[in-house]
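Run log // design_07
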């Protein structure tokens, strides 16, 4: 089995639904530097938000960010999707657990 591509690209790693019902937001991770960004209005103003903090804290505590997907989703699908940022985003949208914060 092949692992994920190691080229420096932004990959969607998590979707969030706002607890206030404001919208659905995505956090992306730059694969080499581990920098994060979000498409929420707060991140656009401050370059930080509760969504990127959630992802960054998980990375800090475990050394990586793991998405949660149902056991019924073949692991090979994730490896195949990880070769292309757009395919991986689709994988996250279709199979990953959406966090509510």
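design_07 sequence
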């Amino acid at each position: 089995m092949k692992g994920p591509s190691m080229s420096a690209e932004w990959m969607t790693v998590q979707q969030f639904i706002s607890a206030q019902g404001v919208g659905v937001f995505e956090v992306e991770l730059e694969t080499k530097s581990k920098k994060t960004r979000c498409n929420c209005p707060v991140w656009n103003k401050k370059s930080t938000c509760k969504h990127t903090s959630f992802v960054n804290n998980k990375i800090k505590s475990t050394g990586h960010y793991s998405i949660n997907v149902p056991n019924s989703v073949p692991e090979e699908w994730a490896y195949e999707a990880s070769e292309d940022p757009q395919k991986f985003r689709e994988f996250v949208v279709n199979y990953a657990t959406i966090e509510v914060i």
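The longest strand covers residues 10-17.
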